Amino acid sequence: MTDQSHVWPAEMDAADRVRHVALTRTTPRNAGWIAEEADVSRDTAVKYLDRMADQGDLSVVETADGTCYRPDDVTQFLREVRTLAEEQSVDELTGELRAIGDEIDSWKSAYGVESLEELRQSLGREELSPSDRRDRLETIEEWEYNIQVREAIQLAISLQSSLTKLDVDPHTGESGLGTLPQEG
Amino acid sequence: MVLFLAGGRGFTRREGLRRIKERLDKEPGFSDVQYQPSRLRPRSVVATVDIEMFVGETFPRDWATVEVTWRPRAGTDVQRVQWVDDAVSLGWHKDDDHEALGTTHFQIETAEEIVHEPGHLEAEAPLSFLESCLQRLPAKLEETIADQ
To answer: Taking an 8 Å Cβ-Cβ cutoff, which residues of chain B contact chain A?
Structure first.
């Protein structure tokens, strides 16, 4: 017995289901695929997907499967940076940068490599067992993830600094003076 | 220079795990729901479970942990929902292991043996996958009592 109908939390309506499916894709998917996953009609999916594309949440690309949708990289990244800048203290952000650095150092040591690229190249070694190769692939994915998070954190720290210089509280968005400081 | 990987995978991953945490926070019997290894860099969500509160009836074991992992990939995502208590470790795994058993396999490990079965679960969206597992868990746990 294969699970045919997709099971969803009771409180999620059609719009929320379409949004969740669309925002968690890596491969661009067409409206029919998203509709089936979200358990809605294709027309309903198109309505919400086009709205999300208009708002910049989704990129629209043409593929062999027709018009497809995927999360918009820039929107996701900017939203991430803003959220980090607004919700985290600079101590939390720098602490996470340190943890990321420590973990990358531990991978360099464990695999005897100096860089992510070197670890990628090591996948071609003939002596690796299938499980060794899978283990390295998984570490490569986590290493890439660490780099992405690190980029976002570094920009969030920079954003906090800029907002402070502009006299805007990064955690509330409120301006102290209502006017921008003069240069010089 | 901002590094964009295929599909903005890292931020996509955080989006999925954020929703998984919100869902587990609402599940009866689930408490101390946390991101691992950290809130800023989540790879999985871990919760402590009061088993009787979760299954809604008396149960011979008291506490469990549930770990939900989700990693988006081009094609089929990796997802695991793993339950661990004093007697068993069981869960649904969508990964590269045991492909002959389908997109997802179910595995149950006791002190005596490890059994792998077809998972019959093909949902790609993280919340849909998780919801199916949460619905199936009580029956699977009931079977572990019958086996004892």
So the answer is: 2-16, 19, 23, 37-38, 40-41, 43, 71-75, 77, 96, 102, 120-128, 131-132, 135
Whole-angstrom distance, CA of residue B121 vs CA of residue A7: 10
Q: Domain for residue B148, yes or no?
A: no
Residues in chain A within 8 Å Cβ distance of B9: 26, 144-145, 148
A2 CB within 8 Å of a chain B CB: yes
- Structural domain including B92 reads 2-143
Query: Residue B10: which residues within 8 A CB-CB, separation 6 or more?
Result: A144, A145, A148, A149, A152
Record the pTM.
0.89
Number of domain units in chain B = 1
Q: Which residues of B touch A69 (CB under 8 A)?
A: none
pLDDT 10s digits, A78-92: 999 999 999 999 999
What residues of chain B lie within 8 A of the CB of A61, using their CB?
Answer: none
Contact status, residue B145 vs residue B139, Cβ threshold 8 Å? no
Question: ipTM of this model?
Answer: 0.90
